[in-house]
Amino acid sequence: MPYDDSKHTSKDIIGSYGDELRGKKIILCVTASVAAYKAIDLARLLMRHGAQVYPVMSKRAQRFVTKDMLSWATGNECVVDLTWRLEHIHLVKESDMVVVYPCTANTLARIANGMEDSSVSTIASVALGLGKPMIIALAMHEPMYDNPVVKRNIGILEPYVEFVKPRLEEGKAKVAEPEYMLRRVIDLVNRSSILKGKSVLVTAGATVEYIDPIRVVTNLASGRFGIAIAREAMLMGADVTLIYANIKVEPPKGVRLIKVNTSKEMFDAVMSELKSKSYHAVIMNAAVSDFRPSIASDTKIDSKGNDKITLVLEPTEKIVDHVKKISPNSMLVAFKADSVNQGLVEKAIKRMRECDADLMIANDALNSIDLDSCELFIIKKSGDVKHLGLVDKTLAARIILGEVAEGLNKNRSDYQ
How does pLDDT run across 170-193, given as a tens digit for each residue? Predict the structure, then answer.
């Protein structure tokens, strides 16, 4: 009879500290960093909090920690070489999460550029393809971390994975401590279920309005915030549909995508979705153009011989005003972008009443356009106002979705 890993004595510690990760299967990928030895402590911590841990390591990582050590620590055989058994497929399909700890600049580059030349990069590739939650904890020398190419690779993966930033000490970008990683893993696991079974519609990006076939009227919104909301909603277990226009970042995998261009196309797409499907929440983050040219030229307007061109603008349809009319049972989250110095909160409260939103997000747009951070006010129908100082848009998305989950779970009693 083959040896049964489920009976390995190393697994006696599972759940000895808590059950926050009970029933979770976590792939722990280890790369060739001096900090690789810390993966043993992380594996044991994850197990003590209830997880089954399946180790995978690159060949070069064996210079710092052995395959047998990781196999012993987890009670599961460590994968170094991929074989005909298709370990990269079966492991990822059956797992709940992938953790790359520590991750070198070399492995980061391979994952970001789709290079499947090691067990770790191949596992990561499959996880990205399946939309599995992934945490990458970076470790390298500080000049390498500051390398613009490394920053680019981080940027490529940020829409799909969660990064744990290194500690910058002694000229090195040191990997986060196992205890901190444990908290991040538990946090992601907890988030992965709070919107389970919920359907969420998100809009993102900036619409354009044509002056002629070449020139447009638009705004500077990048779509970063809406994309962060869609991705975080997916990671929280929701069935997400994203309607987006002219975004500057990649949309997340694992969500249903509908691409539009103009405000009319955005309006038609939103109305079609609300009429064809019941959504628990509708999050209207897109920066839809407020005005469009009343007459658009069918041909490119010649710039020669025209000292002045008069452009007459007309208002576009306010999409958010129609959401509750079509889908009255959906929880509506609306956004108001303005300046704090120009009565942002007061304008947001007024707009909230006009569109019958359940939650209004007032965004200080002057300090957040095309940036990774934003300053927000979260306003409920009850009159409660929560001020978020300048925070990362991903964190802001999590906070907003936490409010959405709370409202849905309480049948929106706090919002009436």
Answer: 888 899 999 999 999 998 888 878
